[in-house]
Amino acid sequence: MKLYLAVLASALLCACGGSDSPKSSSGTEPGTGPGEEPGDPSLPQNPLVQVRFIDDDSRPGYVSGALTAKQQVTLEDTVSEPEFYVVDLYDGQGNLIEADWYQSSSANADQITVAGAVPEEPSYAMRIHAGNAQGRSQNSVTLRFHDFKGNSLMTGPGGNVDRPWAYGEQRPKIAVYRDVSTGVCAFDNGFAYVVDMLEETDTRRDGNNGQSNVADDTMFPAFQFDCGVNPHNTDRPTLFDSSMEQSPDNIWSYSVQNDAMYYGTIVYRSLHAALGEPPLDEKLRIRVHYNEGFIPSIFWDGAYANFTEGHAGAYHSSVTLDIIGHEIGHGVLSRFVPAWASFDGSLPFEVKTAHEAFSDITGFVAKYKHSGQMQWVHAEEAELFERDLSKIVTEEGAVVSYLDYADAGQNFYLGVGLLTYPFYQLVQSRGVDSAYRLFTDAAKNCWSGAQTLESIAQCIKTTADAKGDDTADIVDAFKTVKIQAFDQGVLSHFNVEPFKMRVVFSDNSRSTGQVTGWQWDFGDGNTSTERSPEHTYAEAGDYTVTLRVDDNSQDTDTFSRKLDITDQYCAPQTSSLVKAQIDAVEIDGNVLDYSPSQHSYGATIIHVADDSRVSVRIEGDDKGETGSFTWIAWLDVNDNGVYEESELIKQAVVDSPVYAWTTELNVSAIPNGQARYLRLTGRPFNRKACDQFVGQVLDVRVQQAETR
């Protein structure tokens, strides 16, 4: 028996192809796999299943690099063994460019360096056959690749005023393409391509009806500059004050173009190593200085990763390794799951969460493959939109479990941890490469359509099952976020309803059988074995409540929730940005001694007449703030100090310059003889009751008559 052993690939010299490679965009299958030999025993059978290659030659129009077999099959004694390998060259659409483009001198797949000239194309494919004196194998293995043409190493500044660096000193030089005949350098090395948008936008996006954008290198050429044999680029810094001339004291970031080219090339190589193939069908196209304005905009449009300017004094450039990796991750996932390549907002909510989670994971993987370090905080270098992927609650306001997913509201980013935290757990048991491969294989195999996060998790487990993997760690990883990937078991979960110091706990555990036991730890030294207990805390503070449950399948699970216990009503914030403010308040004929710096007027109780109606008159000054103002009244009926959305009793919009509200409120929900807090707010736009600013909010106590 002739056994061809698998050879592990070098991390930076690898690309992947195989008999199961995706079809080309023309719809033709570029190659067939082992086991399809028609029957002539004199012809060799191709033992290669997965082969990796990346161009390591910087000359344009020429490729060279190690061909590394990642996986091979065992050949029977009756099959002729290969004497060499033959490579046919195709373009990225599956069209033959040249047959017998390369022939190896060795049958050892791990000792082959492929080299040869290629015509200018956006992308290429190799189809590799085994060969001997009688001919070539019918079956082949196919891989995609790009022509690396970074023939000149460039220096220049990078980073920002807080963390500056120089390429060629603190960081390696940047590979760019230099046209030796014109002396012009272009930010296009075949792997990464950077466009300076000069604060303009791509108007084509407005009329594409949600379809993927199309790359146009004529309309959006790569950034260029005149250069010598030792190119150095200083264009173009972001200034603190754009109205002033450039000077060392007026620079906010040094060259977003340089950073994009540097990080873009790293992302290509890192994801190439992780995926075993180029991350996208074509090179990575990045557009910087896209549009202008205060609010940062970072997005993938199907062809380009787009980045607005870093706004001086507010936030730094978002052009960092993991954020570029994140945006390219959207492109990777759209390639794996074409049904998810939509840009009109029509994707299902949970698919949007999955898209962002996969892209966060891809950004992490890009950092890891480059540095070897596990840096779990996404966007940490940019200090913008940071998310901690090593936690379920990745950012403030994120949901604590899949059973709390509705708390994300319309913000699908708040559910990202429901996939990134299971990935984090799987990295602990399997390592980064294996965990990422689980997700990418599942995406290729069974992510499609309007899936839920639960069906996505089930697909990951099914994909691992099909490979014969032990899936216990997958089940456990998704149990941590309360996603069921098991056939039999239990998920612990509970809801809370706080009434200041008193809290009502409601068991919400799920079991494929029946829950048989509950063990509560209230975080203050007290416990309970009731199913849905109540507990009153002796002191205000932060507590972590944990519920452990058992079911009749002998499975067990725990769930924890952090509580902020207080006897105070949610207080408004102070802000120097607030303009409009309340000046005078009259409620049911009671004129309050109102001050804009004070919000609580609960010491005086306003008694309500038998008709349960309260008149309100508020006057104020818009202080030049334009637009409209939203006035809202909340009534804390359950007396828990939170002012829930269900307790909103009236809302009105008043256009500036009028900053005033006269209305009548129905407070019949107050129990007879009891007092409840009423919160009145006036803001330029709607905000939650507990997210208000001093000067635009007041609390009063209203008491209902004993009998009505």
Write a compact overview of the structure shown.
This protein is an alpha+beta fold. Helix content is 16%, strand content 32%. A five-stranded mixed sheet has the order 36-42-41-38-39, with no helix packed on it.
Give structural notes:
By secondary structure, the chain is of the alpha+beta class. It folds into five domains: 2-145, Immunoglobulin-like; 149-319, Elastase, domain 1 (Roll), CATH 3.10.170.10; 344-484, Neutral Protease Domain 2 (Neutral Protease, domain 2), CATH 1.10.390.10; 490-565, Immunoglobulins (Immunoglobulin-like, Sandwich), CATH 2.60.40.10; 581-703, Sandwich (Immunoglobulin-like). The relative contact order is 0.06. Mean pLDDT is 88; it is low at 1-37. It has seven helices and 42 strands. The radius of gyration is 31 Å and the shape is globular.
Keywords:
Immunoglobulin-like; disordered N terminus; alpha+beta; Neutral Protease, domain 2; 5 domains; five-stranded mixed sheet; Elastase, domain 1; 708 residues
Helices and strands, with pairings:
Layout: E1 2-3, E2 17-18, E3 48-52, E4 62-72, E5 74-75, E6 84-91, E7 96-103, E8 112-117, E9 124-132, E10 135-145, E11 152-154, E12 156-159, E13 164-167, E14 174-179, E15 184-186, E16 192-196, E17 224-226, E18 238-239, E19 251-253, H1 256-275, E20 284-288, E21 298-300, E22 305-307, H2 321-336, H3 349-371, E23 377-378, E24 387-388, H4 417-430, H5 432-446, H6 453-466, H7 472-479, E25 490-491, E26 494-499, E27 502-507, E28 510-511, E29 515-521, E30 527-528, E31 534-536, E32 541-551, E33 556-565, E34 581-587, E35 590-591, E36 600-607, E37 613-621, E38 628-635, E39 648-655, E40 660-666, E41 675-683, E42 697-703
Parallel strand pairs: 16-20, 20-22, 36-42
Antiparallel strand pairs: 1-5, 2-3, 3-4, 4-8, 6-7, 6-9, 9-10, 11-14, 12-13, 14-15, 15-17, 18-19, 21-22, 23-24, 25-28, 26-27, 27-31, 29-30, 29-32, 32-33, 34-35, 34-37, 37-40, 38-39, 38-41, 41-42
Helix pairs in contact: 1-2, 1-3, 2-3, 3-4, 3-5, 4-5, 4-7, 5-6
